[in-house]
Amino acid sequence: MAAIRAEALTKDYGNHRAIAELNLEVAAGEIFGFLGPNGAGKTTTIRILLDLIRPTAGHVEVLGSEPRKGGPALRRRIGYLPGELTMEGRHTARDLLAFLGDQGAEPVAAGRITELADRLDLDLSKRVGAMSKGNKQKVGIVAAFMHRPDLLILDEPTSGLDPLLQQRFLDMVSEAKRDGQTVFMSSHILSEVQQVADRAVIMRAGELLATENVEELRRRSPRSVEFVVAEHPFPDDFANLPNVTDLRVEGNTVRCTTEGEVDALFKVAAKYHLVSVLSTEPDLEDIFFSRYRR
Fold this sequence. Notes:
By secondary structure, this protein is α/β, with parallel strands linked by helices. 31% of the residues lie in helices and 31% in strands.
């Protein structure tokens, strides 16, 4: 069963079309990257999935139910981190999370909250109203994960986190998948999800440009190869090889771009005494925007 399914989903705000006939399917148990620049329609889509707003047209199902009909029973199965997290008040992070932990189908143990807080370097004794943006984001992440929900919907989840905590967060996402949870993660930073996503789509101006399997996309994409040999190489040895372009021979160094299989290239290179080999994989962001730039 699909965890999320949208068919011809459309949302208008007056004369502005925020989403245009979006068709989307997220399989249960996968990590799905929902990508695009700010204003692409990502947050609007998420709010429809959660029944925070209603679509103008189209049909959507979340965990087998329509958001409008699923009610509290459906929402208890979802962990949600909004893109704009507002927290005020004099209560501590521990008190807030304990309160939220009691709202699910089963209460969350205090040890679970402490475990997640420790991973994110979150001080639970601090008052949420006095916290920085980064610490409020940590509270939101703990709140989304602590119930071990069937579906995690995360809108710009690493906003305000430093690089070390971003990596810890991505580790938590990978662990959620291993536990059978589905993760739907919105971001305007493609490189943020390339470590963990099974599939990714890119949105632009309310339209879905493409859906890609991340590993397959990487495998098909061009990469830079550079190797150094002990003796001076002959350029003619490498000319006209399949899947090789942009060949440059400078001294004892051979540089080129490859796409697809590299068997022919390295069979020729193996005729020489290889000193070093460097293969550089393009960033997912570069791949997407080179393929779908308008």
